[in-house]
Design a protein that fits this description.
The chain is α/β, with parallel strands linked by helices. The protein is about 35% helix and about 20% strand. Helix 4 packs across helix 5. The two termini are about 20 Å apart.
Amino acid sequence: MKMAVLLSGSGRTLDNFHERITAGTMQGSIALVISNVKDALGLQKARNYGYPAFHAADNAVINQLIIDHGVELILLAGFLKLYTPPDHLKRNVLNIHPSLIPSFCGAGFYGMKVHRAVHQRGVKVSGCTVHFANEVYDEGPIVVQQCVQLVETDTPDDIAHKVFDVECEAYPAAINLVHEKGIDAFWR
C-alpha cells in the first residue's frame, strides 16, 4: 500500500517507519509526508530520506496531496490537528495513542498529558494502542495494543520513554497486519 505520514513534530515515528521499510520488516511504501507545522523537523527528515514532503495546514490541501499521490493508507504520527480524510479513505486512517484504550484517551489526552495522568493515577501497566481513526477521538477499531510494566519510581518522562519503545514495535506490526488482512477486516 502507498502510505502518507502526517506529523507535527520531530518525526521519530517516521524514522522508525523508514528504518523498518528499508530493513524489509514493514510492508508498504511512504508516498509522502505532510506536516501542519511549517518548520517541523519531521519534514526535513522526510526530505533527507527522499520522500516528498509538504507543509499543509488546511484539510482540503492535505487531502488533495493525498489524492494526487495515490495514497491508500494514512498514518497519523503525532499529528496534532483534527484531521478529516477524503470520503473514499474514511476508514483508512491509522493512529497510535500512548495508552491502552479505553484508558486515558479521548479529547485532550495526547503526548505527555497522557503520561502525567497515568503517573498521577498510579497505574501499574500502561502501553500504546494502534487503532483506526474515526470522527470520535480514540474510538475507532483497535488493531494492536502493547503493554509496559510500570514501577512506583517511574516519572512521567520514564513512562513516555517506555511507551515510545513499544510504539516502535506496535505501529509497524499493526501496519503489517493491515496489509495482511486488509482494512475491512478491522471494521466489523
